[in-house]
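Input chain follows. Return structure tokens only.
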Amino acid sequence: MRICLTGGCGFIGSAVVRHLIRHTGHQIVNIDKMTYAASEDALEEAFGHERHVLIKADITDAAALRDIFTTHKPDAVMHLAAESHVDRSIDGPADFINTNITGTFLMLEAARAYWASLPAAQAAAFRFHHISTDEVFGALHDDDPPFCETTPYDPRSPYSASKAASDHLVRAWFHTYGLPVIVSNTTNNYGLWQFPEKLIPLVILNALEGKALPVYGDGKNTRDWLFVEDHAEALVAVVERGVPGETYCIGASQPRRNIDVVRSICRILDAKRPDPAGPHDRLITYVTDRPGHDFRYEIDASFAKGALGWTAQHDFEAGLARTIDWYLAHEPWWRAIRENRYTGQRLGKTL
């Protein structure tokens, strides 16, 4: 297939690009605005590869999207481009509304116009895969069952509300226009090339620099953690084998409290990079909880596993150790970000 993939220089998107290059014969048309969290370095061997083309464009630019569909004639769309940091959405929701809602609307319209022009056989094979989050479902209590494909929507932050809106648009385009869409919802991803504003890389790098390790509230908020390469494999399975109109909840069923994630990072770093000043957990600092902080997320991925023949390969401890090893080995990349010198362009062979 020729796949039009949005946000392919982001954390999850770049993992999908790398998976497609390494494990399939598909061609990739990568659309990325190259915002602060995008990285050409994260493409690794896909950068300059004959089966990958990077187009620097904004999904809110309708004319650019029309040109891309007309020129590259994709067989499928994987729509990952989104603003995704909850804290940033609380401080400034406008970008989230614009990118996540308006951008998705314009992607749907560009895809619909292109799809309508295809011969019958190609139109029948076309897919629009929208990648979303479990945060659209709201929060779970300790005794609630995990989220699944039929869980009602109950978003609690500007970020999750914008993603919920985009999910509804995608499903409306299926029911109203017949556009062959598929939706997937996932839980917290972690792993290689994650921008260091999210919990796991932030804690790793703060610990390496001897800085405070901030933990919201009492640290008991719980998340289901999925290694990003396992998610990338699942997303490719969805676009290859998913059924139009269907939803797939993708997770690893490995919930951890935030405080336990932070302590695990400290324990691994104590072994791999001891701090002469003492154990890294001495740096743990409890801070005022953020507004609307959901207590627990967890996904029941049994339907996706059965329908797609997919299972997450990494257990959390092994995935976390691999992630820490990666950040230890890629200091030039994250150091440039921490020092506000990184522009998203490739750093060259220093990595």
